[in-house]
Automatic annotation (TrEMBL):
SUPFAM superfamilies referenced in this protein's UniProt entry, alphabetically: Thioredoxin-like
Positions of the catalytic residues: 49 (cysteine sulfenic acid (-soh) intermediate)
PANTHER family, A to Z: PEROXIREDOXIN (PTHR10430), PEROXIREDOXIN-5, MITOCHONDRIAL (PTHR10430:SF16)
Protein name as catalogued: Glutathione-dependent peroxiredoxin
Function: Thiol-specific peroxidase that catalyzes the reduction of hydrogen peroxide and organic hydroperoxides to water and alcohols, respectively. Plays a role in cell protection against oxidative stress by detoxifying peroxides.
EC category: oxidoreductase
EC number: 1.11.1.27
Amino acid sequence: MSIQIGDSIPNIELRVMGAEGPEPVQTADLFAGKKVVLFAVPGAFTPGCSKTHLPGFVVKADEIKAKGVDSIICTAVNDVFVMDAWGKAQNADEIIMLADGIGAFATALGLDKDLTAVQFGTRSQRYAMIVNDGVVELLNVDEKGIDKSSAETILAAL
């Protein structure tokens, strides 16, 4: 069963790229006392994720933050080096690129997806959520496409 509205985000250690290289970060620290928009993609540098999903949040970042959002976080089951390179390639300076290298976060949320048939292995489902002080207030999971988890949809929900 996946995480639901009203549930708390599980505390998992993940990675972000710091000034000196990869740094561990606890999800509890990213969400505690903050209003956060979190969105997940199946993979960095993949077509839908690179052409539509992440760019939408890059373009709308200021509008989203103007609605009282402290942080925008993008996560994927990719390593920290890939997430960092993808963020730089997409000019995602206002977005925390959170590496879920082994899929522990996606699995803990119950939002993992087996894409072994297309040689991707276990990845994250495509979703977006609004989290307030670690508690899920909105959860939109896309079965196909990017409509439910787009920056525009999340902005309208704020």
